[in-house]
Amino acid sequence: MHPVLLLGGSGQAGSSTAAMLRDWHPALPLTIAGRDLGRAQHVADDLGTATAATVDISRPNLGLPGEASYSAVVATVWDKHLHGLRYAQDHGIPYLSISSGMTDIAPEVIAGGQRAPIVLASHWAAGVITLAALDVVREFGPVETIEITAILDDQDTGGPASATDMERLADASPAAYIRENGTFRWTADTEVAVPTLDGRTLPGQYVAILDVPSLALATGAPNVRFAFAMGESSGRRHHGTPSHDVQIRLTSGARTATH
């Protein structure tokens, strides 16, 4: 089997994705691709059954040799040229993106109807929270409102690429994307107090993120919002280690549940 190519595989998001894939698929061959071959090789050596490669996402062929063969491409870093997508399409292999915001996905959506499968996974934490929400909705039953709040610690070790992504997405979509009374819409009314897990609140805002349409369409909930804040997480406040404070609040009539 040809290896899965992880673009940005030596960064924080990429190495974490690679580690998860290794846990789930111990024999799956991986290629850790990045600008720094030494860093990529270090990640590959730690994983086992993995190789390292230097890539240049500003080049149409990613700077990879013509004889290279892969079974899929996973983009864990923002690729403004979408050369990773084109590489996957040209080679007829699946492509998965976790770094494109809602305002970025149009080319990927169009490409999905062309030559090879595409998975859009630019949700919070690559979809983990949406999957968790779907699980609690399954237990809760019919739901009218889903509201997710998430706090990213301002000392989180996401690295410079993650910080740049956050700034880019904030600049691209200052409005929030919500579902209200069954209608998807953009709103400039974004300010909200976001609760921490230890009872505080931080100033935050509703955001445009793929979790909103994913949850709305999967559950039929007529009201869905996602709020985000950055600051001191409960984990760092009490234990010295940054954490993600995430809460899922479900409402249906007089029934409510918070997870």
Automatic annotation (TrEMBL):
Q: Outline the segment boundaries, as ranges, of region: Disordered.
A: 233-259
State where composition is biased (Polar residues). 249-259
Q: InterPro entries annotated for this entry?
A: NAD(P)-bd_dom_sf
Identify this protein by name: Saccharopine dehydrogenase
Protein source organism: Kribbella albertanoniae
